[in-house]
Amino acid sequence: MLLMLVAASAAGSQQWQGGWAETRERMHVSAVLLGVPLALAAGCWQGGRERRRGTAELLATAVRGRTAAFLASALPVALWPAAGYAVATALTWLATWYCATGDRPHLGTPLADAAVLVSAALAGHVVGRLVAWRLAAPLLAVAGYVVLGVLGYGDAGWAGGLSPYTETPSDSVPVWWQP
């Protein structure tokens, strides 16, 4: 996640490095369009790995409840993409800090994007446990990318408001719950 987001940001640094709003929008677009499919695939792969290893019988004998057992296996996979996103965001903020004019960094959008990445990894983990197919992870990533792209760029109607990817004008700050 870290390498992908840093590479995506560095590719067009002349477009976003001059202002905080442009930096926020660039990281938001990268996190949703590139990070969510990657988090979905990572979660799905880890969930499928647990199913392939046959840990269901082992977990059935454990003292923990189902939710605790699920979270013990799914949270590490869900938190690593958020950590990579946090480091990539910090690096882009450092790259913007010395040449930004006017505005300030907004913390709400990166926090909400990190929550979206964690949710995507958890959803992918559930799909990985339920679908017994090795190609589920890459196909889930492609499906996530297509769905987010259609909702973000096309005329999605009522479903467009549910998408974590909605472009905002560079002179306004999105509401805290938008991502």
TrEMBL record:
Membrane-spanning parts: 31-48, 69-95, 107-128, 135-154
Keywords assigned: Membrane, Transmembrane, Transmembrane helix
Name of the protein in question: ABC transporter permease
Keyword set includes Transmembrane: yes
